[in-house]
Amino acid sequence: MDDVLTKRIDARRPFPILKTKGSLLLLCTVLLGILANVLFYDQSLGVSYPVFVIAFYALFLWNVRSQLQTKVTFGWLLLIPVFLLSFTYLFFSNLIFYALNFIAIPVLIVMQTTLVTGRAGEKWYSIRFLIDLLYGFLYRPFAYIALPFMIAAKAIGSRIGAKKDSAFFKILLGMVITIPPLILIVSLLASADEIFGQLVDKLPSLLLNIDFYTFIPRTLFTGIIAILTFSYIWSLIRPDTVSSDWVRKSFREAGTVRLDAVSTITILCIINTIYVLFTLIQFSYLFGGFSFALPVHFTYAEYARRGFFELVVVTLINFSILLCLIYWTKKNGKVTHTAIRFLESLLVLCTLVMLLSAFTRMYLYEQMYGYTYLRVLTHAFMIFLFVLFLLTLCRIWREKVRLIKLYLLTALAAFVMINYVNIDVLITKYNIDRYERTGKIDVDYLATLSDDAIPEMVGLLRAKDDAVAGKIENVLFERKQELEGDGSWQSFNLSQYRSEKVLAQYDLHYDKKYDSASESLEEP
After folding, report:
1. Domain of 237?
2. Are residues 398 and 475 in the same domain?
3. Co-location of 397 and 432 in the same domain
4. Please, are residues 121 and 242 in contact by the beta-carbon 8 Å criterion?
5. pLDDT by residue (tens digit) across 453-493?
6. Same domain flag for 247 and 316
7. Which of 125-129, 388-392, 415-419, 488-492 ranks highest by mean pLDDT?
8. Same-domain check for residues 144 and 224
């Protein structure tokens, strides 16, 4: 009677074999991630590739042995080309096959593992088997990426006697979930700012002599391999079909998953602690009186290039975190809900400071090397993100706000506005202003701009530097000839008409001695 009752209880659990197989599989995939770290990180492919393939199959076959089809089929025969191709990295050095095999081997592995576990919805020779392949690449590695964190939190909680519904377990789950994005965020911020990087370097040295810039990416690499491998193999262990109805049902169920408010508060507290520290450092010198003082030993270009892209990536990470927490957090009470709102607002404010820092860095860079399409559009993108975060802040405090609707309307309005701002005119005007201050300008780049820029470019005909004036005259002379070539009414364009009228006021000539290249706007 007790055995029957136990089976009924186990059947109601969402993961009845999680306690044994889940924990064992997680341990195996962590070991595989460590092995991948040793074999591949900062190393060229060689004997490492077949060693990793052998280790993967040892892990796979042991963990899914109860689901395997023992009859010799095409799926089992696929092991032959998989291993033969993996050993080419040991035997040969042909770069063409080096690249082709790098793609072919993962495809064959997905085919083989899908077939031998009986998870294929179609025959391997059917064109519809491509759906199974896409499913193996795009869904299986990501279907259960949250499960390892739940297993880890549950294991730690059971060690210290914490129950699943206890506040301590929820805090622990929040801490475990925060570790991977926190490692990435700290790494990016340390790379973006020298002072913050020096502060981070001191923290590990208090405990161990760790090379922080090596430890973080290696740990992140190991974790990604372990989690994706766990999710892929676990999806094959689960007794599910891959029909489209089941996929839609899975996504609907995933949409109902909610994170407890205590776990959300834990995540926000940890991340905000890092961001507040970073923000204080930024205000200490970058925004101090808006004097744009730079850290010691840095030029404008080095400083701008060092931190800009890292800060933009962190901003996008924060955007993703905010949206997930806004839509996937349970409402446990008025007090906790208000606390979450304040913490989410703090995350928004810190992110806005990062955007302002990134904006300033790009401004410094433009002051040194001029304005281009990419740099001006980057400014526009940061302003766009700034507006999106303000809208998100409104959604945090007013739940009736339809955030996705506002995002789409803002994106549409921004796209229309950027079309009518006339970037060519802005680039030309700003570069001419910079020339008047510094005496530096890239005429060759201005020559690539559209006819919108011509009314501004004619101002350089009066430049003090004869070389600049001569080169601009050559550019405008060629552009004048092009404009006079097409007079059909079907091709009428106001920008071209206006430029043609402006150029008609000047007697332009072409001088070959001004064909030499001028200062380049390319990044040093």
Report:
1. 15-148+214-256
2. no
3. no
4. yes
5. 999 999 888 888 888 888 888 888 888 888 876 666 667 78
6. no
7. 388-392
8. yes
Alpha helix ranges (H) inside 256-299: 261-285
With respect to residue 156, please indicate whether it lies within any of the assigned structural domains. Answer: no
Do 367 and 495 fall within a single domain?
Answer: no
How many domains would you assign to the chain? 3
| Reduced DSSP (H G I as helix, E B as strand, rest coil) percent helix, strand, coil of the chain, to 5 | 75, 0, 25
Q: Which of 419, 451, 481 is the last residue of a domain?
A: 419
Please give the Cα distance from 154 to 148 (Å, whole number).
10
Give the three-state DSSP class for 338.
Answer: helix
Q: Distance between CA 136 and CA 60 in Å, rounded?
A: 15
Q: Are residues 288 and 313 in the same domain?
A: yes
Q: Which residues contact 474 (CB under 8 A, 6 or more apart)?
A: 510, 511, 514, 515
As a whole number of angstroms, the distance between CA 29 and CA 460 comes to 64
Between the alpha carbon of residue 243 and those of residues 120, 149, 357, the distances in Å are 10, 27, 48
Give dist(CA 47, CA 35) in Å, integer: 13
394 Cβ contact list (under 8 Å, min separation 6): 401
pLDDT in tens, 90-111: 888 778 788 888 888 999 999 9
Residue after which a domain boundary falls, among 396, 419, 442: 419
| 250 and 263 both lie in a single domain | no
Give pTM, 2 decimals: 0.65
Upper half-sphere CA count for residue 461 (Cβ side, 13 Å): 19
Cα separation, 442 vs 431, whole angstroms: 8
Instruction: Say how far apart CA 222 and CA 214 lie, in whole Å.
Output: 12
Could you tell me which of 361, 357, 359 has the C-alpha nearest to residue 304? Answer: 361
The structure tokens 């909610």 sit at 258
> Is the same domain home to 218 and 343?
no
Residue with tokens 């602690």: 273
**Residue 372 domain flag:** yes
Burial level of 490, CB count in 10 A (0-12/13-18/19+)? exposed
Q: Per residue in 202-226, is it b (16+ CB within 10 Å) or e — as a string?
A: eeeeeeeeeebeeebbbbbbbbbbb
